[in-house]
Amino acid sequence: LAKTTQPISMDSYEGQEVNITCSHNNIATNDYITWYQQFPSQGPRFIIQGYKTKVTNEVASLFIPADRKSSTLSLPRVSLSDTAVYYCLVGMYTGTASKLTFGTGTRLQVTL
Amino acid sequence: DTGVSQDPRHKITKRGQNVTFRCDPISEHNRLYWYRQTLGQGPEFLTYFQNEAQLEKSRLLSDRFSAERPKGSFSTLEIQRTEQGDSAMYLCASSPDSLNEKLFFGSGTQLSVL
Asked: Which positions in chain B touch A41 (Cβ < 8 Å)?
C-alpha cells in the first residue's frame, strides 16, 4: 500500500485559494489518488479523484505531476464552510480485498 | 435520500453489553466497508464485503467484532462484550464496482461505552 504524507494543519483566510499537497512516493502503477473531506461528526465525503495530470470538478482541482509521487488538492476561494479535515488516499481495487487506508489528514481552518 | 444510511446515530451502552449497528448502502453499490474512527484520527479500516461475501476481515479488532451482509444488501456490525476502548465512531461506506474505488460514507454511529 502506498503510504501518504500530508501537512497536519493549514490556515487560510476566506476567499483565498488553498493548496494541500500529499506525498506518495511508492505509488503503484495502477493506483488512483482520491481526496475526501470530513466535517465533525460526519463521515468523509468524496471530493475528487485522479490518475494523472489535472482533474477539475465543481468543487476542486487535483494536480498530479508526471512522476505521480505527489498530488495537490486545490480549493479555489475557500469559505468558512470549507473548514474541515482533508484526506488523501492512494490505491485501487485489488479484486479480492480492499484496504484503503486513511492517514490523519490535513486540518484546514478558514477564518475571516 | 439515496445515500448510505446508518442506524442508530448514537449508542450508549454499559461495558459488557453487546451492540449491533446497521448500514444500508446505496442500492446499486455491491461493495460495503466498515471503518472505525477515534477522535483526532483518520478512519481505520475494519472489514469489507463484495455483495454478500466478506473478502477482508483480518483487520477486525478482535474476535468480539463480527460483521454480516446476509443478502448482499444491508450489513450489520456487532460488538460483543463491549469495552470502554470500543468507544468510537463506526462508519459504513459503499462503493460501485470499479477499479477506482470511490467510497460513499454514511454519517456513522457514535458508540459510547460506560
From this structure: 89, 107-108, 110
C-alpha cell at B81: 462484550
CA gap B48, A105 in Å, rounded: 22
> Which residues are CB-neighbours of B3 under 8 A, at least 6 positions away?
B26, B104, B106
Q: How far out from the chain centre does Cα B30 lie? A: 15
Which among A43, A96, A98 is the nearest to B101, CB-wise? A98
Calpha distance B67→B77 (Å, rounded):
4
Residue B101 sits at the chain A interface (C-beta within 8 Å): yes
SS3 state of residue B96 = coil
Q: Say which of A87, A97, A102 has its CB closest to residue B56.
A: A97
Size of interface A-B (CB pairs under 8 A): 77
* Cell numbers at B17, concatenated: 453489553
Would you write out chain B's pLDDT as a tens digit for each of its 114 residues?
Answer: 579 999 999 999 999 999 999 999 999 899 999 999 999 899 988 998 989 988 877 777 789 999 999 988 999 999 999 999 999 999 999 998 777 788 999 999 999 999
Q: What is the DSSP string of B32-91?
A: EEEEEE-TTS--EEEEEEETTEEEE-TTSSSTTEEEE-TTSS-EEEEESS--GGG-EEEE
